[in-house]
Amino acid sequence: MAPRAGLRGWRWSSAWRAARDGSRERRSMGRAAILLTPRTSHTVTDLHAHLRTRLLDAIAGLGLDRAAAEPLVRLEPPKNRDHGDVALPAFQLAKLAGKAPPAFANELAARVTADDVVESATATGPFINFRFRRAALARAVLEAIQSGAAPYGKAAANGQVVCIDFSSPNIAKPFHIGHMRSTTIGNALCRIHRHTGATVHGINHLGDWGMPFAKMMTAYMRWGNEQELHASPMRYMFELYKRYGREVKENPGLDAEAAKHFQALESGADNVERRMWQLLRDESLKAFQGPYARLGVTFDHITGESFFEDKMAGAMQRVTASGVLEQSEGAAVVWLKELGIKEPCILQKSDGTTLYHTRDLAAAFYREVTFHPTRILYVVGAEQKLHFDQLKGVLTKMKEPVAKAVEHVPFGLVLSKTDDGKWEKFASRSGNAVFLDEILDEAVAKVRGVIREKNPDLADADQIAEQVGVSAIVFNDLKNSRIKDVKFDWESMLQFEGETGPYVQYACARLSSILRKAECPVPAASAIDHGVLADAERVLLTMMDFGTAVQKAAEQSEPSHVTGHTIALAGEIHSYLRDHYVVGQEPKIRDARLVLVDAARRLLVTGLALLGITAPERM
RNA sequence: GCGCCCGUAGCUCAGUGGGAUAGAGCGACGGUCUCCGAAGCCGUAGGUCAGAGGUUCAACUCCUCUCGGGCGCGCCA
């Protein structure tokens, strides 16, 4: 419904006042994540599945109940790699058997004899450590990666339908640093869920309704000029926004004026407010395509708050019919005390107009009938936890089935450093607001400099600098648990060494370079001598963790699990390459390593793609 | 005041459906490009996991309390 064509080339104003009512577009937190997969094991590879079966057979052989033991067989990575490839703490199984853990571990280990896949099962105290045959490990992992089999490639449809409400900026304002987190996290979650086989609906719930927009309209109607608006829409609207903020201090009546305009807009009549709204919305929406294009973000649906204008009456009727709506001080509210929420959820103001909650309620109903979602993720900042608790609470009190799908995915604030070295919420009082384009431009410029220095003959250097620079910013945003506040400082943001996007991209470029220099095609993974890859066990075991990382990321709405895996894999392959050359080796070794290098590159590219990042062939 | 989140190495963070000696990166110090990309790799130093109780065979991980930091709390979003 919205124009997707990009408007490139304009820059954000250098200062931005994050006034209280201006910085609160949606983005926030949630209740406990709904875990949609049975938490029985981490069996994401054939090797693990095989081992599980062997273990359960052995357990049954010891006279234990197979079904009772099944959930207790929790294979986990050993604390120390020297112990083995996977470990099984035998405490609970020993309890089931009524034996001392070390003795039981011994008995069980003895029954898991070596086969084509399992090399050994060794009891170490109460733990059993397993080791796979190196050739089997290499074969299983490399063939799966090369053929694009799940979890390395996209999984078959899993029946889940996931709505992801993300980015959702208030489009009456410039796209600034504060908008980035919901955008990058939501984008990554869309890609991750698709990879795991879900049907995903990425939704941009634009803030194009309500008081912020009404204030912008008020400013424009008082001071606006259409020529200036068209010349530089976002910058001009930002100026209006700032002016409104200044003048409302002198003239508090402005807010009442804005409220009147909103009332007129919501009346549905074809009036000046409606035409004004349409104009401002169109202009700002166009301007937002620039940042989205740079970040590689797309949406399946751009249904902002205004989209629900004609659906709110129906939603209110539904609430009324359910009998949970009450009048309080002239407003229509739902009390949620029995759900442990003290603050009532206000659905209609005393002047009859609607609120954020009303529109989210209408949106929930709409999404339910339109998409039949198993989960609806709201990627919105943690400061809006109460809002989503209330939304879910109202739906729960109404006994609406969709209530259980509603899931807030909160994330931390973006903090900036004050003059005295403390961290505080981004606010431009001290002129510290930073706009996304400025950050991306800085990063790209720095990358360009690094390229000039390290790879001066690189073709398409500008394009690659854009690719690498933007990735550094996105990767940085997805590196830590989303609930952590992001400490924004230029130094670490523009750091390309260590655990960074460019580090992972560099690994990809290095691997690509080796594949080019090999001057022979990558053999089929099934055709190589897997035994010679015994020296690559750390790389292979890390590769094997990919599925677990993606699964956890999907279940917990936590892209950082994927980010972490790409860093780990890049590190392992870098280390491996130090002592293991590919080019110039005898064919048997060269071929096996070519498959390994190619698989590592593929998996890194896949991991980055899940984060919304591309990897250049050279950099 | 009430509710929620966070507190692990100098800094930024992993690890928190309890499990074997708490891991990275940055910074510091020391190595490493006549050999596939040094945006790399290897090593050294650095931790009473905020504190105190409790549950458990086992607690950084679960429960309670305290301290420190942050966010939120009726017609904004």
For this structure, the CATH topology of the largest domain is: Rossmann fold
Give the overall silhouette: globular
Number of domains: 3
Specify the number of helices: 22
How does CATH name the architecture of the largest domain? Answer: 3-Layer(aba) Sandwich
Most strands sheet: 4 strands, parallel
Order of strands side by side in the largest beta sheet? Answer: 5-4-9-10
The CATH class of the largest domain turns out to be: Alpha Beta
- Taking all residues together, what is the mean pLDDT? 87
- In the predicted model, the low-confidence regions spanning at least 5 consecutive residues are 1-25, 27-44, 428-432
* Rg estimate, integer Å: 28 Å
**Fourth-level CATH superfamily of the largest domain:** HUPs
Helix/strand structural class: alpha/beta
Helix content: 40-55%
What would your notes on this structure say?
- It is a single chain.
- Helices cover 50% and strands 9% of the residues.
- It is of the alpha/beta class.
- Strands 5-4-9-10 form a 4-stranded parallel β-sheet, with helices on both faces. It has a 3-stranded antiparallel β-sheet with strand order 1-3-2. The chain has a 3-stranded antiparallel β-sheet with strand order 6-7-8.
- It is globular and about 80 Å long.
- The N terminus is likely disordered.
- The structure holds one RNA strand of 77 nucleotides.
Topology summary:
Elements: H1 46-61, H2 66-69, E1 86-89, H3 91-97, H4 101-111, E2 118-124, E3 127-132, H5 134-147, E4 161-165, H6 177-195, E5 199-203, H7 211-223, H8 226-231, H9 233-250, H10 253-266, H11 272-295, H12 312-322, E6 325-328, E7 331-334, E8 345-348, H13 356-371, E9 375-379, H14 385-397, E10 406-409, E11 414-417, E12 423-425, H15 436-454, H16 461-479, E13 486-488, H17 490-493, H18 501-518, H19 537-544, H20 546-556, H21 560-579, H22 587-610
Parallel strand pairs: 4-5, 4-9, 9-10, 11-13
Antiparallel strand pairs: 1-3, 2-3, 6-7, 7-8, 11-12
This protein binds one RNA strand of 77 nucleotides through strand 7, strand 8, helix 14, strand 12 and helix 15.
